Amino acid sequence: MPELPEVEALRDFLDENLVGKEIARVMPVAISVLKTYDPPLGALDGSEVTSVRRHGKFLDIGTGGGLHLVLHLARAGWLHWKDVLPSGVPRPGKGPLALRAALTGGDGFDLTEAGTTKRLAVHLVHDPAEVAGVARLGPDPLADDFDRDAFAALLAGERRQIKGALRDQSLIAGIGNAYSDEILHAARMSPYKLASRLGEEEITGLYEAMRTTLTDAVERSRGLAAGRLKAEKKSGLRVHGRTGLPCPVCGDTIREVSFHDSSLQYCPTCQTGGKPLADRRLSRLLK
After folding, report:
1. pTM to 2 decimal places
2. Which of 7, 57, 86, 88 is the most exposed place for a label (fewest CB within 10 A)?
């Protein structure tokens, strides 16, 4: 799933390549992709793109007509920029194409979504806050005013495990499964530790790990073409998606805990005092 660093890099790329250009037509291909119907997508025809902003994992394309095309790429969606779009109107089919945005100059972008679970979402609204997912977002972890004390205040009273708290978009915007693993590894903290039981030094270390991990990922991605961002994300990960490989810090074997729709990765030596975490799903399979 694209998370804050990749969406921020896409925002940066679109700010350079999209702002100032005129929209010819936005064409939904998959029925599931469009989540709003008033105003209709045809209201964008002839509009100039004036801004591209990010709200957590959402992209917000603003136009001179006051409308905002708000995109959420979900788990398997992606944006593909094309200097020359195919001519004609794309037809619905079994392929991954979900939406095409054509500019009057012949360029534009496609939104695609792999797999059968369709969660990619496009909204056309007068105000991004009309999108429920945007309205409920917590603070951006890279915002200038989001300091260590603001982070501590969010965690106060949180009785969840810290892994789940970091992924909660209404608590902190933009962090998902991959970067929560990376942040906790950098902080040398168990994903099962309760957020409310963090000491002052642990909060400081976790805050610094969060800011550094996300900032470094954004900087690695900055300036890359949209098509190269996925590979950059994967190459920069230390523990997430690396089950069975050596930890780049201590050399221990990276372990995994599986859930019904996701998994987490961690290093026992760096994060849990050398003790493997219980993987109840695997335990049931072995019985």
Report:
1. 0.91
2. 88
